[in-house]
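Hello, quick one for you while I still have it in my head. No rush at all, and the record is pasted right below.
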Amino acid sequence: MHLLTVTITTFVAANIISLSLGTAIGWLSPFLPLLISSDSPLDAGPVTDIQATWIASLLCIGAFGGTFLFGWSAEKFGRKTSLLATAVPLICFWGCVAFGTTVEVLYVARLLAGLGAAGVFLLVPMYITEIAEDRIRGTLGSLFILFLNIGTLVSFVMGSYLSYHMTAYILFALPIVFLALFLQFPETPQYLIRRNRVRDAESSLKYLRGYTSTPDHLEMLRSEMDGLLVQVSGEKDSTEQSSISLADFAPPSARKALLIGLVLVSLNQLSGCFALINYTAQIFADSGSDLDPNMAAIVVGAIQIIGSYGSTIIVDRCQRKHVYIVTSFFAAIGLFAMGTHGYLKSQHVDVSAINWIPVASLSFVIFIASVGLLPLTFVILSEILPPKVRGLGGSLCTAFLWTISFLVVKYFPVMVELIGLHGCMWVFCAVCLSAGLFNAIFIPETRGRSIEQIIHAMENNIKS
């Protein structure tokens, strides 16, 4: 029990920063309506609609740059040091929110939040993967999104019951607590071995597993260290044979995997779920729902957590393709229902009897997307990219995801003006249907298959 407890404790400490990032992401929903109102806390008064879209979308620009910065840092300075560094932009974000009095300071704050987001999304799964035992690695890895969503809900709740500045003062402490707690935990054994620090790697592994000096524990330590040495030695040999280049994308399986990855991350963002989470309170206010917008956002946040937990349960128990296709289809139904309610309202039809539809539909969409459509994008992406190009290919896909995310979040309010909220919901509905169709036609099943089997399926267009 002690051995497992040490790993769980390390996992929880690492994910305090995930919780902190979730609060930074969730901050926008309860406070954007305040910023554009006459009660705005800024010296210049309410922000304009254009300024509001920049506040919402600049997080994605920061994340685009952060993807490459923290990718480089993880290899240069190590997983632990780089993960500790992600706390800095998040501390600065809350500092800007707490003490900033102009919209320009909020622009900087959101860029910093994006920088931290890129680091957390990259480094927390990387650190957890490299410290966890095989038997619990999948579960611990999938719980990362759960911590993120809990943080989002915390922001929704605090934003509903506390003031603008009080929320920032309190949440300012989270990344500081992470720094204080995580400093005591070690670098990952794999990284230390890659840097030829074998003795340090052994000490790290001994701490992480809670091994003592008993003969049984020493034997287990030697056995695991031997396995890591062989694994890292194989990686070094592969790297020395040829460094990564564009030629490595020449094989059909690599080209197809990269193209599928780019399409998957595009569909992930064009489904509208990230935009809906950013503008949750505003959407409910505009939809005419009878429920208080901030309370509705809290309901959606809680539903998202339930969906994320559901994903951790089924991700290794059901076929990836089936879960992705089914959740895409049902998300489309929820978006269509919300769009239809909005259309009837815009045509001055009395919808007072069905004003529960916006909350119910959006809650259903976020729940079902959190079960499959959203998390499986990243699971499938990590499984279909061949090992040689996985690092570069993953970075390219992640950077492209943040680019699409910026465009969706920035121009969502513009599209609402042009085609109405109902039109946007119908567009998102069409994208979800397209996502399910794309998966059914082009993506092979990956659950329970080796890398070689997945590459073979890609090359031979095997879908089942």
User: Anything to note?
Assistant: The mean pLDDT is 85. The chain has 21 helices and no strands. The chain has three domains: 1-185, 198-235, 248-463.
